[in-house]
């Protein structure tokens, strides 16, 4: 009497791919939530016109620090909401996650003279989010 195993090489490969995709989605969700929370705090500092920001006069994109604060606060709040949707694996959250991360990259690029090191860190976080959301394949039943 022979027993048939339900595990085939293709089934194991499919499971490994699904686990990899789910891991990337969790990575993207956590990273986007972290970036969003940090952007919220940065926005609060900008609105309060905290002395931690460097001001420069000769920058092409000269905006009011309070305006940057509101921009970062809004982007951070949306990023946190989208990251909660990513934990469920929703397609809308993946699309919005790439969009919000791209907007965070642009906003941090434009605010480089105000807080350069932190802007570069946030750009890197957001780039990892975009990469993870674009590489992870959604779960599809075959």
TrEMBL record:
ATP-binding keyword on record: no
Organism superkingdom: Bacteria
Pfam families in UniProt: DUF7144
Keywords noted in UniProt: Membrane, Transmembrane, Transmembrane helix
Domain DUF7144, first and last residues per copy: 25-137
Regions crossing the membrane: 23-48, 68-87, 92-111, 117-136
Entry-linked InterPro entries: DUF7144
Annotated protein name in UniProt: DUF7144 domain-containing protein
Species this chain originates from: Streptomyces achromogenes
């Amino acid at each position: 009497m022979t027993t048939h195993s339900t595990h085939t090489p293709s089934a194991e490969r499919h499971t490994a791919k699904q686990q990899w995709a789910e891991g990337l989605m969790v990575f993207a969700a956590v990273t986007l939530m972290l970036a969003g929370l940090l952007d919220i705090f940065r926005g609060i500092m900008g609105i309060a016109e905290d002395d931690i920001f460097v001001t420069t006069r000769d920058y092409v994109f000269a905006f009011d620090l309070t305006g940057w604060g509101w921009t970062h606060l809004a982007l951070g709040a949306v990023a946190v909401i989208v990251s909660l949707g990513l934990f469920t694996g929703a397609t809308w959250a993946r699309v919005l996650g790439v969009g919000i991360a791209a907007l965070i990259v642009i906003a941090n690029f434009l605010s480089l003279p105000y807080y350069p090191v932190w802007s570069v860190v946030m750009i890197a976080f957001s780039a990892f989010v975009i990469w993870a959301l674009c590489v992870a394949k959604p779960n599809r039943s075959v």
